[in-house]
Amino acid sequence: MKEHQGDLCSRYIKIFIVVSCYWVVSIATVFVNKTLLSSDSVSLDAPLFITWFQCVVSFTICFILSRTGGIPGVFNFPKGSPWNLDVVKKVIPLSIMFTLMIATNNMCLKYVGVAFYYIGRSLTTVFNVLLSWLLLRQTTSLRCVLCCAFIIFGFYLGVDQENLLGSFSLLGTIYGVIGSLMLSLYSIFTKKVLPSVNQEIWLLSYYNNAYSIILFLPLILINGEVGVLLKYTNFDSTFFWVQMVIGGVCGFAIGYVTSLQIKVTSPLTHNISGTAKACAQTVLATQWYNETKNYLWWSSNLIVLCSSAMYARFKQIEMEVNSRKPLSEEKKSLV
């Protein structure tokens, strides 16, 4: 009994440490990206270039880990090359979604405040339900649909209150909605692509970052950032490159701690942890940037957060019930 209690205590301590690391890394990543994208200390109006550089840093770390085999005593990095033609053909469609997802997320963060960032990107769950029906012909229970309706209402209320407070950005909100759509598509098609990389999340991250480095180049050109980069005068600043590298390391770290949290807990716990983290992130942002929000603005956040958590819980109950029923492979959810 004592040994069992000791093992249980050790497991809880491990879960607490992992979840705490996820919170710290995730919140730090958002604040670091906001600083890079819109602060006077960087003053580089080239958000896609900044995102591209973060992919370069993530790819470099993955490349080193692939050569060393991982971190001894921590984890083993799977073997694989992103330049295999067969792998490229299978993964590149997902990498396009990945590129658009991180690009629109950072574009959203450039134009909206950290406090409003969660609301601006809160429609991922709604798109999951909609795309599951359109692409998979998978129906959703009424209570989950009602949760989505409340999320939409919370999103609308948040946009309305942000507009009344004078800090609303239509462009940033549009990027947030597109980012939510891309994240939903990415989540759905990831399961289709994972068998092509032997179910290895690390390999998929390695390949996505490798291909994104190339895919970002035409986007940077189309967005008119080449002229901005040519005129930028702080490329010789050590402080600038330190900030850029920190942003890249944070981008890599968030992928690792997210996978680790799901591994030591569960997808449901990850969703709940992410929802609670978003709430803490919003409170921290209002304090950090000295922003004053009204009651209805806070209500919109609470509606979105609670509705998202309830959706995750209802979905888990449905999955537990469905797991007891024999289903054909094509009918299983990809979300």
Automatic annotation (TrEMBL):
Residues of the signal peptide: none
GO cellular component, one term: membrane
Transmembrane portions of the chain: 12-32, 44-66, 87-103, 115-135, 142-159, 165-189, 201-220, 240-260
Stored InterPro entries: EmrE-like, Sugar_P_trans_dom, TPT_transporter
Topology within the bilayer: Multi-pass membrane protein
Domain Sugar phosphate transporter, first and last residues per copy: 14-278
Localisation: Membrane
Keywords for the protein's UniProt record, in alphabetical order: Membrane, Transmembrane, Transmembrane helix
Pfam families: TPT (PF03151)
Name of this chain's protein: Putative GDP-fucose transporter
